[in-house]
Design goal:
The chain is an all-alpha fold and 189 residues long. A two-stranded antiparallel ribbon has the order 1-2. The radius of gyration is 19 Å and the shape is globular.
Length: 189
């Protein structure tokens, strides 16, 4: 199959079958991308970090980066169109019919039933990303634990701080540890 068609179909499927937004897409996106050998789990984590650090919707950024990695510019276009097309179609249908069905008890029941699944999918994504970020082949990556702890602590202490600041803080800590003290990284990992 042509790589551009495969990218479009794969990301269309991801966009169609994951409910709950970008973070809920991570497990399916990870499975599809790694199983096709388009990226390793480590590369997926890097894409997640970059997608979080750049403007725009998370899932669109991920699809764009993965598509670009696999198929260049046109790969990015195909994967981005693939991931947004289902949402576009579904939102148009919902906008057309939502007012009619919004108060229907069955529709409400479906929406209430979907909520726990979304939380579960986000939890699975957090677990697999955390495992890959904090564990290496030799054990615990203490630098990642330190960066996470500082970011978490700052956010906990200043809950009104903008998340972009936390991302920049984490990037700066990564530059400091991995750029200026690589021998310390070797000792702590």
């Amino acid at each position: 199959m042509n790589i551009y068609i495969e990218l479009f179909v794969t990301f269309f499927k991801i966009g169609l079958f994951t409910i709950g937004g970008g973070y809920a897409m991570i497990p399916m996106m990870q499975e599809e991308v790694v199983s096709r050998s388009w990226a390793t789990i480590e590369t997926v984590i890097d894409f997640i970090a970059v997608s979080e650090s750049t403007p725009g919707p998370f899932a669109v950024n991920m699809a764009t980066f993965i598509g670009c990695e696999v198929g260049g510019f046109w790969g990015a276009v195909c994967s981005t169109l693939g991931v947004v097309t289902p949402s576009f179609i579904i939102i148009l249908a919902i906008a057309k019919f939502f007012a009619t069905f919004a108060q229907d008890r069955r529709v409400k029941a479906v929406l209430y039933g979907i909520r726990p699944v979304v939380v579960g999918l986000i939890g699975v994504a957090a677990f697999s990303i955390g495992k890959a970020a904090f564990l290496t082949g030799e054990g615990i990556n203490f630098i990642s634990v330190i960066i996470f702890s500082v970011a978490f602590g700052v956010y906990k202490k200043f809950p009104k701080i903008h998340p972009v600041f936390i991302v920049f803080l984490s990037m700066a800590l990564g530059i400091i540890f991995y750029g200026f003290f690589p021998s310390l990284v070797t000792v702590l990992t």
